[in-house]
Design brief:
Helix content: 40-55%
Number of strands: 24
Family: Belongs to the SecD/SecF family. SecD subfamily.
Domain SecD export protein N-terminal TM: 1-108
Strand order of the largest sheet: 14-15-13-18-19
Largest sheet: 5 strands, antiparallel
Keywords: Cell membrane, Membrane, Protein transport, Translocation, Transmembrane, Transmembrane helix, Transport
Number of helices: 16
Oligomer: single chain
Strand content: 15-25%
Domain Protein export membrane protein SecD/SecF C-terminal: 429-599
Radius of gyration: 33 Å
Structural class: alpha+beta
Transmembrane segments: 453-470, 477-495, 544-566, 572-596
Length: 627
């Protein structure tokens, strides 16, 4: 009756082993480390950079305890803080010869001391949030009005070009706030302009009215189109912030949308608020210029001659120099989109650009007049220019769609399109909230959180063992497994643990023991009714299951609602809360029953069970053992 088949015990052993393996990394602590990441969007970390790091450390007489490369950064772990500081100085000297124009960011960091055999199993500790590790928190307000105004400026140029192509004579086009106004002398012209604009720009809401002796046609974005512009501006700003924060060397930054026009940025481990502000507020611009093809320019590229008058020299992605004309053709304001793709004929990776009406007209004229010449696309960041690509113009390019190709991998095409698309902010942002948390406060939060969970666990176990005796021991072991599985799942998901998450852990302990209390009391009821011990155990677990399932599902629904509609700390609480409910259902029912079956199930003539005092219905006899 109360016996588990072997396969159920096998499941328990496997779950127990997985739980221990993936919880262990959280107990090894952290070691001092140095992190090398890209200081520019066009600089990529690769295996060649890893070799440079190894050579620099070797030249300084230092040996890293572990050296890892995750595709975006290189992390060198050391045994002592002294070695960490020496390594930072050595790498700074080797990789950043010019401090005013750093290609790499060398930052101090802390890495988990997880043994290599655990890392090989992809077992890693949970990340610590801002409130536990310390760092900087910013709340950024995006100027959505500026995004809509910028879109209106672009539409004004597009409408001007459209009416010119349709030969519609108008009295002037201007922008009034976020509305584009087209003036005309008569109603026929207004109608012609309305038809042309409505056909080409269905996202615009058109209204016309007389204005003295003239007529005015007003074009404004429809509400759904305006929302789309705002959403795209917010997403582009978030993408740009991700690119910029790489410079700070933050392992797990939190950059997420809050509301319709705000962005939360949390940088655990960063204490330099001034530098963080500089990074977040940095502007990047894009310019298209013609390459100087003269012989003097070729000599200037190699350093054998000065740069010709009217030209400038900039480095490209490979570190070589390129001389370009000072006069720019287009800027990033004329670029509306950039996407990676493939050439339909050669199948080579390409970058496909989309220009606005003004940019399309200028680009068509320039490419027609400069076939066979090179054109450079330059990204300016912090006053420093860098050539992203310099393709040869093959033919006149019209229609506002430009294809860049030549010696690019698919990954480079994707990276280049991201640079061109998100090199600058789509809308201005303002820091409206700023908070700095020191590492001392973070350590204090960790200590208090661990004490609350530990003492809560101990007190619950003592109470259960005293009140329910042997069944209390089984319940305490199940509660321990629940805590073990909760930490293991969070570690496997690489979740970020915050103070609300620790609070949810403590709450999960109290909720998980409820299931065992229900089971134990159900067994007691069966014993009071005169059932045999084996039958009471069987009926207690079976009849308590429905109640446990109902209560946990209702609580899980609330947790999922918090997860779906909450943000920030609320979501952190909800994640731990939901996972704790799922693990408690396994540990409190499946695992605890396995322990009970293992202890009592093989006793054929079981006369009593140690489940504490069982009061008889008449209230007369109280026994510490049910008989």
């Amino acid at each position: 009756m109360n016996r588990y088949p072997v396969w159920k015990y096998a499941i328990i052993l496997v779950v127990l082993l997985v739980g221990v393996l993936y919880t262990l990394p959280n107990f090894f602590g952290e070691s001092p480390a140095v992190q090398v990441s890209s200081g520019k969007a066009t600089i990529k970390i690769d295996t060649g950079t890893v070799q440079r790091v190894q050579d620099a450390l070797g030249a300084a007489g230092l040996k890293a305890d572990a050296l890892t490369f995750d595709g975006n950064s290189i992390k060198a772990r050391f045994l002592t803080p002294d070695d960490q500081l020496k390594a930072k100085d050595a790498l700074q000297h080797a990789l950043v010869p010019d401090a005013s124009d750093p290609s790499y960011v060398v930052a101090l960091n802390l890495l988990s001391s997880t043994p290599s055999w655990l890392s090989a199993l992809h077992a890693a500790p949970m990340y610590l949030g801002l409130d536990l590790r310390g760092g900087v928190h910013f709340m950024l307000q995006v100027d959505m009005a500026a995004a809509l105004t910028k879109k209106a400026d672009s539409l004004a140029g597009d409408i001007r070009s459209l009416l010119r192509e349709k030969t519609v004579r108008h009295g002037g086009i201007s922008r009034n706030g976020q509305v584009v106004e087209v003036k005309a002398r008569d109603a026929q012209t207004v109608q012609a302009a309305r038809n042309a604009i409505a056909d080409q720009f269905p996202e615009l809401l058109l209204t016309d009215a007389p204005d003295g002796t003239e007529f005015v046609l007003r074009a404004a974005l429809k509400p759904e189109a305006a929302r789309k512009v705002q959403e795209m501006a917010l997403k582009q700003n978030i993408t740009t912030l991700h690119n910029r924060i790489n410079e700070l060397g933050v392992s797990e930054p939190v950059i997420q949308q809050q509301g319709v026009d705000r962005i939360v940025v949390q940088l655990p481990g960063v204490q330099d608020t001034a530098k963080a502000k500089d990074i977040l507020g940095r502007t990047a611009t894009l310019e298209v210029r013609m390459v100087d093809e003269s012989s003097d320019a070729r000599s200037a590229e190699t350093g054998r001659a000065p740069v010709p008058f009217g030209s400038e020299r900039y480095p490209d992605r490979n570190g070589q120099s390129l001389v370009v004309k000072k006069q720019f053709i287009l800027t990033g304001e004329n670029l509306t989109d950039a996407q990676p793709g493939f050439d339909s004929q050669t199948q080579e990776p390409t970058v496909n650009l989309t220009l606005d009406a003004k940019g399309s007209r200028i680009f068509r004229d320039v490419t027609r007049e400069n076939v066979g010449k090179r054109m450079a696309i330059i990204l300016f960041e912090k006053g420093k220019g860098e050539v992203v690509t310099a393709p040869v113009i093959r033919s006149e390019i019209g229609g506002g769609r430009v294809q860049i190709s030549g010696r690019m991998t698919a990954m480079e095409a994707t990276d280049t399109s991201l640079l061109l698309r998100a090199g600058s902010l789509a809308a201005p942002m303002e820091i409206i909230e700023e908070l700095t948390i020191g590492p001392t406060l973070g350590a204090e939060n960790i200590s208090k959180g661990l004490h609350s969970v530990t003492w809560g666990f101990v007190v619950i176990c003592v109470f259960m063992c005293v009140y329910y005796m042997m069944f209390g021991v089984f319940s305490s072991l199940a509660l321990g497994l629940n805590l073990l599985l909760l930490m293991a799942v969070l570690s496997m998901l690489q979740a970020t643990l915050t103070l609300p998450g620790i609070a949810a852990m403590a709450l999960a302990l109290g909720m998980a023991i409820d299931s065992n209390v229900l089971i134990n009391e159900r067994v007691r009821e069966e014993l009071r009714a005169g059932a045999a011990p084996q039958a009471a155990i069987h009926a207690g677990y079976d009849r308590a299951w429905a109640t446990i399932l109902d209560s946990n599902i209702s609580t899980l629904i609330v947790g999922l609602a918090l997860l779906a509609f909450g943000s920030g700390p609320v979501r952190g609480f909800a994640v731990v809360h939901c996972i704790g409910i799922l693990t408690s259902m396994f540990s409190a029912v499946f695992f605890s029953r396995g322990l009970v079956n293992l202890w009592y199930g093989r006793q054929k003539k079981l006369k009593s069970v140690a489940i504490g005092t069982v009061w008889r219905p008449d209230g007369g006899t109280a026994l510490s053992r049910a008989e």
